[in-house]
Amino acid sequence: MHFTSPEDLTARAARLGAGPTLMVICEDECEIESTIRHHLDAGFHALVLAVPPGVRVPEPLPERVHRLTLGTRPEDLTLSCVNALIAGRPAGAWTGYLYNAEYLFHPFAESRRVGEALAFCREERRDSVVTFVADLYAGTLEAGGKGVDRADAWLDATGYFALARMDGQVPKDRQLDFHGGLRWRFEEHVPPARRRMDRVALFRVRKDLRLLPGHLLNDEEMNTYACPWHHSLTAAIASFRAAKALATNPGSRAAIEGFRWDGSVRFEWRAQQLLELGLMEPGQWF
Length: 286
Hints:
The chain has 286 residues and is α/β, with parallel strands linked by helices. The chain folds into two domains: 1-100, no CATH class; 102-286, no CATH class. The chain is 22% helix and 27% strand. The strands form four sheets. A nine-stranded mixed β-sheet has the order 1-4-3-2-5-12-7-15-6. A three-stranded antiparallel β-sheet has the order 8-9-16. A hairpin with a 3-residue loop joins strand 13 (211-212) and strand 14 (216-217). The longest helix is centred in the first third of the chain and has 12 residues, at 77-88. The chain is globular. It starts with a strand and ends in a 10-residue tail after the last helix.
């Protein structure tokens, strides 16, 4: 299907069906094809590409991939597109979002589909999956490069930490702000509001649900990393997004000679590696 506006998406999104559906926000043309392929292979029922003006996507698109063509690039691109999708989805349908050059991994992804992981979450009475964004970067940052190299991708093995998420002077229950990766090591080039590495990137929709700034939802329970009685399943997003920004933005590109450091390890493109690094949690799912 081809959606011509966020309003058209809301009106016709029910035709995508109730299976797990993922929105890919195409900020530029980098690695759109590999992003599509990874998530179709992961088992998503449908993908919706949000395409601003000036961004070209591979043609023809695979059967389960649909296009949302935007006439302008709104300042709140993510909120406009994701909330339009939420508003049109059937109640209870699992829905997610990420950006091009980002790759979602769930626990045991080598042998289990994403639908199995989400079915387990529903059985655990969880309506959301907190995801941790692991910054990927090219092993060598060439002059004029974008810091993206799938064949030579690296990530930080150390340097991750969490701080209490405050409601005034009181810490919020089962909510933390997670930090690490490139946005921590090069924080002087990253606005404070963009330094967190956690997102609520997978959730079950309902009529009044909305995505808020900061990658949070308007339901506080859905922003928690675990239920009250035990650890819950989380997921990870391996993302070149921070590397792209740091390598291309005028304020940072001249100051950064490379991203690798003593804490870097080569990314193996396996969910098991992300589990071993503590970047996602299987909870009670075995």
